[in-house]
Design goal:
Length: 417
């Protein structure tokens, strides 16, 4: 029997895509999550076994111990994949302890942790000559003064670790419109106990965002490469993809591969670039050292990175493939794209024609819906409905609270005389 695959995290469409890719190929997929009610990917028929595990965000060491003990049951070491940054960090930090029980890419010690941490990535970019937006790490008043003076506004206050920041602020960054509010934004982020940095905004609309995806084998050779262009994001301007189409860009492919090789990266990885709207140069925004949210797009284009990753690590690599011909497919997250489209319209960044044209011109690779695997869509819908009901309840509670306060102590007949 072929080795199994273990996917960490199941509450997002990123792991759902990989579960389907591997399951359709006949791979036994074990999906782990710490909160089953919101882990809608567990509803997939391609999950061989769902496993309740410790909360990695609260007890990373406990999660590592759990994986080590749980991994001892397998006769053949399974392939371990991260569906979220928090799990990718765990794999990086405990790679040596996990390696006897799981198959992992052989990355240099600590590399993934540096890449996932934006501060570490920026330092790596300086060391290896990788172009990134101007960034300041503010640790004292002198640093703040330098950042305030040299930064172009608006700019961003960004976290070192995105998943922690998003959990608190429900956003990937804070936008600073003018110099005088920079200190306030930094204070707000630090009050939550987060490590942050100040970074310039590269000019250009959301369709200036590109991704380079690759699989690098143990010898450091790129066996598979892929490029795509974002069209819309949620939240708009600084969010995750809602509509992204395959688009071969040789400059993105060449630079992405060069950056991966300079870093000594191994396994599957994704680099996000933004093309400067004025000078045309590509700036690296981040590297995702985990499964991608675009899994379903890869599959439709014949580039099944989750399966490529699996086959290489079990010693049965697939033939090399570098996608250069144009494909008609676009990743589409229907619910989030509806929200982002409305936001683009309200802000005046796009008109109705701009919204509809790219949507009509592509075949859709759906983030959650799949004709052969419907239950995750219903599970997602159930979660969404519960979320909307909770929000409605808070709004109603706030309304009645304000109404009660407004009437308290007032004369019910103020104009009676």
């Amino acid at each position: 029997m072929k080795p199994a695959a273990v996917i960490l995290g199941a509450n997002y469409y990123t792991p759902l895509g990989a579960i389907r890719t591997l399951g359709r190929r006949g791979v036994r997929v074990y999906a782990l999550d710490y909160h089953f009610p919101t882990a809608y990917a567990l509803a997939s028929k391609y999950v061989y076994q769902k496993v309740l595990c410790p909360n990695v965000n609260q007890d990373e060491e406990g999660m590592a111990r759990f994986l080590i003990e749980w991994g001892k049951q397998f006769d053949e070491r399974p392939v371990l994949m991260a569906g979220h940054d928090s799990y990718a960090l765990l794999i990086s930090r405990y790679a040596q302890e996990l390696a006897p029980y799981y198959r992992l890419p052989d990355n240099p010690p600590g590399l993934l942790e540096e890449i996932i941490n934006k501060k570490g990535l920026y330092r790596l970019s300086q060391k290896h000559g990788l172009r990134m937006p101007l960034t300041f790490f503010v640790e004292n008043e002198a640093d703040l003064a330098k950042a305030m003076e040299q930064m172009r506004y608006p700019c961003l206050v960004k976290p070192a670790l995105s998943h922690e920041f998003v959990r608190i602020f429900r956003s990937k960054c804070l936008i600073v419109r003018e110099k005088d509010t920079l200190a306030q934004a930094l204070s707000r982020a630090r009050s939550a106990g987060l490590e942050v940095m100040v970074q310039e905004i590269i000019p250009g609309f959301d369709d200036c965002m590109y991704v380079f995806d690759a699989y690098i084998n143990a010898e450091g050779r790129a066996t598979h490469t892929f490029t795509a262009q974002k069209l819309r994001q949620f939240p708009i301007n600084f969010g995750s993809s809602t509509l992204t189409h395959h688009c071969y860009d040789p400059e993105v492919a060449a630079l992405g591969l060069e950056y991966m090789q300079r870093l000594g990266y191994r396994g599957y990885g994704e680099i996000e670039f933004k093309r400067h709207a004025e000078n045309g140069k590509l700036y690296m925004i981040e590297i995702n050292a985990r499964l991608s949210s675009l899994n379903v797009l890869f599959d439709k284009c014949g580039m099944e990175f989750a399966y490529i990753h699996y086959r290489d690590l079990i010693g049965e690599p697939l033939p090399d493939y570098h996608l250069r011909e144009e494909k008609p497919w676009a990743f589409w997250h229907a619910y989030e794209d509806f929200l982002s489209s409305w936001a683009y319209l309200k802000s005046g960044q796009l008109g109705w024609r701009d919204i509809i044209r790219p949507w009509l011109s592509h075949r859709k690779a759906h983030a959650i819906w799949a004709a052969d695997d419907l239950l995750p869509l219903f599970a997602f819908g159930k979660n969404l409905l519960a979320k909307l009901l909770r929000k409605a309840g808070r709004l109603l509670k706030g309304f009645f609270t304000r109404s009660g306060r407004g009437s308290k102590g007032k004369n019910h007949f103020p104009d009676s005389e």
